[in-house]
Amino acid sequence: MRIGELSERTGTPRRLLRYYEEQALITPTRCANGYRDYDERFVDRVVQIRGLLDAGLPTRIIRQILPCLDKPHVIHFPDATPEMLATLEGELDRMNHRIACLTRNRDAIEDYLEVVRQAKAPA
After folding, report:
1. Residues 6+ apart with CB under 8 A from 13
2. What is the rounded CA–CA span in Å between residue 25 and residue 82?
3. 5, 14, 72, 103: most buried by Cβ count inside 10 Å?
4. pLDDT of residue 106
5. Contact at 8 Å (CB) between 87 and 80?
6. pTM of the model
7. Is the C-alpha dihedral spanning 24, 63, 49, 66 positive or negative?
């Protein structure tokens, strides 16, 4: 698929997709005319990259953990530094706290909706 289709399917601006390519997060093939050609798997990859960026991970760390996102998982870190591991542990803790907060908020909204629906239900 061309960059425009990948952009539409992932909600990611073309400029950002080119940046991901510069950062070696995605690597499209090139057609004879020089156009980028993205494999179907890049749809999920871009969504995963955006989620990791939203979670606060820098692109240099994302580039290192990308093999873990593929199936089958390939985990090989010849250059895993103590700094990188500490960063990942910190991000994992932060994500777990965020998940817990989101879960509490989701449960509160579900409870609220249940009470409101019961109050509006005809007796």
Report:
1. 7
2. 22
3. 14
4. 95
5. no
6. 0.66
7. positive
